[in-house]
Amino acid sequence: NILFVAGGAFDGIEQIIGRRINQNMIGFSAKDEKLDSDNLLQYVTPSDIKDFGLIPELIGRMPVLTYLNPLDEAALRRILTEPKNSLIRQYVHLFELDGVDLKFEGDALDFIVDKAMEYKLGARGLRSICEAILNDAMFELPSQKETKELRITEEYARSKFDHSKLAQLKIA
Hints:
elongated, 2 strands, mainly alpha
């Protein structure tokens, strides 16, 4: 009674699935099915994973094959703010250690989520975006004893992000 769960990103498997679906849809066997081309992962089969490069011996030991839907803006916003150890709470605590009250406005949080969606970074990219926005403040504010509060607005977040190396990345 042992359960093994395996997961991965499988970057590029959409092309394999797309090729298979297009080949199956040609000729007299074509069906009038509506295919969701935005999320081809829902049509994944063991043969797609084999074509991707996994060995059949491993695929045969995985009886259930499924996919996850991409995260939407609402889910990313919840990940950013709601958990007990959310990113926002972690940064607030880090700044509290230096005696600075850190506050995020709603439009700044929306900006962070929008950038994660735009760059297709998902939940893991939220930390990179927050780092790009807060990096300067984390190093400069502790030495400025007169600064007791930092309010992150959309304008502040945009200006810091636009001057970061992350903003220079090519959008995927």
